[in-house]
Amino acid sequence: MPGPAVPGPGSAVPEGGLADPRFGPATAPPSAGVDAAQMGAPPAPGAGRRAWTRAVGAGLALAVLGVPLGLLWAAVAPDTPVVKTPDGAVYGLPQPEQPIAADGWFSLLGLGFGVLAGLALWFVLRRQRGPVGLVSAVLGAFAAAVVAWQAGRRIGLGTFDRLLVTAPDGQAFTKPADLRAGGIDWLLGVLPVPHGNLLLPAFGAAVTYTLLAGWSRWPSLRPEPMPDAGLSWASEATPAPTAAPEPPAPGAAEPPRG
User: Fold this and answer.
1) CB 202 within 8 A of CB 126
2) CA dihedral sign of residues 173, 175, 180, 185
3) Residue 36, CA atoms < 13 Å, CB-side half-sphere
4) What is the C-alpha radius of gyration for the chain, rounded to an integer number of angstroms?
5) pLDDT in tens, 122-132
6) Where is the region Disordered (predicted)?
7) Is the residue at 36 inside a domain?
8) Is the residue at 243 inside a domain?
9) Which one of 28, 66, 126, 201 has the fewest beta carbons within 10 angstroms of its own beta carbon?
10) What's the Cα-to-Cα distance from 230 to each of 9, 24, 105, rounded to whole Å?
């Protein structure tokens, strides 16, 4: 009895890489969403420069987001009541709680911003995951904290400075929110040294990004192609159907019956 027909060199394979049971298993094609670097191909010329360009752009975008963060801080942080004296403005209460509340609000908002920044850059810079993405997240979050601090503290600062000069002694008014538990000190007058809760956004971004990298299931931190499973339409337990016998040629002797 003749065996099953074997496809020739030009025979087509069904779409999707799944073979006909008569022809044996076929290798599934690689995923279309896998880039050349993940398939082992050499990186394209200038890939490192483009990676750093994207990282710098993402960091600058985070820094710009510091403006709405500062406006939000100025909106929720309470102003501090002060009284004009010959020596300047002094607190209107012996132990005011408003400066502590301003620091607390900045800490909470900054830490949340850092966590969201780490998450965003992990998913946006998928091909730059690793040291490049971590540096971009940390520096971008720190720049956003500085921008938020300067933008928030200037809301109402002009009015406060004007009253500080023109108001009579004994008049009460308010001072806009500012940081007491954080800021920038100058070492030797030339080197800026940030400290306090101004570093919390960068800390939140660093911790979030590091945890995502540590729990990633891919050693390269990038999505990798799934191994070929060798699937076919027929199960291994199901025998392949035999081919139907070919009709006898014209003039051939009929086989004996019985």
Assistant:
1) no
2) negative
3) 6
4) 35
5) 998 888 788 88
6) 1-48, 227-258
7) no
8) no
9) 126
10) 21, 10, 57
Backbone angles phi, psi at 155, to 5 degrees: -70, 110
Q: Rounded to an integer, what distance in angstroms lies between the CA atom of residue 83 and that of residue 22?
A: 93
Residue 228 in domain: no
Nearest to 73 by CA among 36, 112, 42, 125: 112
- Long-range contact pairs involving 92-101 (C-beta distance under 8 Å, separation at least 24): 92/172, 98/177, 99/178, 99/180, 100/180, 101/77
Q: Is residue 75 part of a domain?
A: yes
Structure tokens at 257: 């019956």
Number of domains observed in the structure of the chain: 1
Quote the pLDDT of residue 146.
96
Own/partner long-range contacts of 123-126 (Cβ < 8 Å, ≥24 apart): 124/58, 125/54, 125/55, 125/58, 126/222, 126/223
Q: Which of 130, 141, 171, 156 is nearest to 62 (CA)?
A: 141
DSSP state at residue 70:
H
